[in-house]
Amino acid sequence: MPGTPNDLIQLARSVVARMVRSEGRGSAFSQLVLSELYEALRTEADAIDGSELANRARLQAAIECCRRAADPRLSAALRCAELKGTLALLESENAIHMAVGALRFRVIHGALSNSAIG
Predict the structure, then answer these.
(1) Residue-wise pLDDT tens for the chain (118 aa)?
(2) CA–CA dist 57, 43 (Å, integer)
């Protein structure tokens, strides 16, 4: 089972790759492949405490994409599109953490920041 956001992203990428390779193998095979990611997302969402509501909401949205992708009535192309949506949700959180970690705050005096003064 994945333990970090990066593990979930790697699992989602792996599932997307398997789904693309197996296009046309039928909905039963797709549901089997999707179940691994679905269960990992559910486990991760259930482990989140109440202070991380945004993270829980993102994971719930990813779970819903997985649920839609598992619909046997979907075409293979739509199934892959839903699954890629799951991956995009997971990667967006990773990108947000990287961007927040790279932020630098500057003290502003008047209308100019310290970096613009000198």
Answers:
(1) 465 778 999 999 999 888 888 776 777 888 888 999 999 999 999 998 877 888 888 889 999 988 988 888 888 888 888 888 899 988 886 544 433 444 444 444 555 545 554 4
(2) 14
Domain housing 34: 5-117
Distance of CA 42 to the CA centre of its chain: 12
DSSP class of 25 = S
Residue 16 token pair: 């997307």
Q: Which residue has the tokens 């039928």?
A: 26
How far apart CA 53 and CA 39 sit, in angstroms, is 19
How many domains are contained in the chain? 1
CATH of the domain at 50: 1.20.120
CA dist 92 and 5 (Å) reads 11
What six digits make up the tokens of 36?
């691994």
